[in-house]
């Protein structure tokens, strides 16, 4: 429910909680499942809050041959939102936003994959957003990393992401749809956990240096938990296979 106050959306209630009842530093629930598409080399399904996203990965020799890189693999991510994924039906086909997110995901995954171990190979990552509720680029990247690992692609680390921002002037973690639409800032971030290397950082809105530091600290703490969810999803799949 949206609470209107003086013509604006009130995102923090009188009890100091967000509209969905979360504290400022509280994540939405996250679930990740691997191996959901039998014919893909690797796949993953993520539920992050109300977001529902499926990812399929295919590893093949790049074709036509003139597109091959003789020294390293090429990563191509294709992000798409289903027409029914949002309240107002989305027009089919790519647009500036989907192309930008595809590029961001490709570059972030390329930082994690040991590309030189797969010369002449193309790694295709297909991302389909089935239901969108803020933070789809980060949820897509987090799930894509699991799907790439599920495909057996050599990686330095899994990419893990999170968002933070400002709602009613307060720094909050993992923006909801209302906070994304009506808040003052949105900061998506992704890292390689083992080294802390930042592979994605964007800022949309105005934040002070102190607010930025607070936001990144929140995200770094949250990404420890998200990283564990990623690894548990992969381990769970192989534990089930071993038990069959």
Automatic annotation (TrEMBL):
UniProt keyword Cytoplasm, yes or no: yes
Limits of the Exoribonuclease phosphorolytic domain: 26-154, 157-218
Keyword set includes Ribosomal protein: no
GO terms of biological process kind: gene expression; nuclear-transcribed mRNA catabolic process; rRNA catabolic process
Localization (cell): Cytoplasm
E.C. number: 3.1.13.-
Descriptive protein name: Exosome complex component Rrp41
């Amino acid at each position: 429910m949206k609470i209107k106050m003086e013509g604006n959306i009130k995102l923090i209630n009188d009890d100091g909680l967000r509209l969905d009842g979360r504290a400022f530093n509280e994540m939405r629930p996250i679930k990740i499942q691997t191996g959901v598409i039998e014919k893909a080399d690797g796949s993953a399904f993520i539920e992050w809050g109300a977001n529902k996203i499926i990812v399929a990965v295919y590893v093949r020799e790049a074709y036509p041959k003139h597109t091959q890189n003789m020294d390293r693999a090429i990563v191509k991510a294709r992000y798409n939102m289903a027409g029914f994924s949002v309240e107002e039906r989305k027009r089919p086909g790519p647009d500036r936003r989907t192309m930008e997110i595809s590029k961001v995901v490709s570059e972030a995954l390329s930082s994690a994959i040991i590309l030189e171990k797969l010369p002449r190979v193309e790694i295709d990552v297909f991302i389909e957003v089935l239901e969108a509720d803020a933070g789809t680029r980060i949820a897509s990247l987090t799930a894509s990393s699991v799907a790439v690992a599920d495909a057996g692609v050599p990686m330095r680390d899994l990419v893990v992401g999170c968002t933070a921002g400002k709602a009613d002037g307060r720094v909050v973690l993992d923006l909801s749809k209302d906070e994304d639409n009506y808040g003052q800032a949105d900061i998506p971030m992704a890292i390689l956990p083992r080294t802390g290397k930042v592979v994605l950082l964007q800022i949309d809105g105005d934040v002070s240096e102190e607010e930025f530091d607070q936001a990144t600290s929140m995200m770094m703490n949250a990404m420890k938990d998200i990283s564990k969810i990623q690894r548990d999803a992969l381990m769970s799949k192989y534990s089930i296979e071993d038990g069959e």
